[in-house]
């Protein structure tokens, strides 16, 4: 009998799984390291220099911005996004499931609000839980309406 912290042995065709709840398949799927963590790039979405759009144009840019968020999430490149509710210069965050700031920079260039100068991104390498890779699946089960 194995103690709660010992690994089970690997059978032919079956992955090793620890008794304490560790799931080696899930760890592999999410890109988790031995600590259950992985690299991401966090983007701080800041107010850009061009925020003088009229209400119609601003609404169109916001819709295109949200559509771009959805596209990146569906591609598995964006694991979290959301706005801040206060009047801070940082309007929201993205967490990209990419290895480098350069990869994230290419993704931010696809955002219509960035292209229009309404938003600008400040990018930082970040180390966080690999469980974030499952955030999209969980969100789909919780959202009654789409953005």
Overall mean pLDDT score? 89
What proportion of the residues is helical, as a percent range?
A: 25-40%
Query: How many angstroms separate the termini?
Result: 50 Å
Write the element-wise H/E pattern from the N-terminal end onward. Answer: HEHEEHHEH
Strand content: 15-25%
Strands across the major sheet, in which order? Answer: 2-3-1-4
Number of helices: 5
Radius of gyration: 19 Å
Largest sheet: 4 strands, antiparallel
Outline: elongated
pLDDT under 50 segments (min length 5)? 1-11
Classify the secondary structure makeup into a structural class.
alpha+beta
Number of strands: 4
Describe this structure in words.
32% of the residues lie in helices and 24% in strands. It is built from 5 helices and 4 strands. It has a 4-stranded antiparallel sheet. Mean pLDDT is 89; it is low at 1-11.
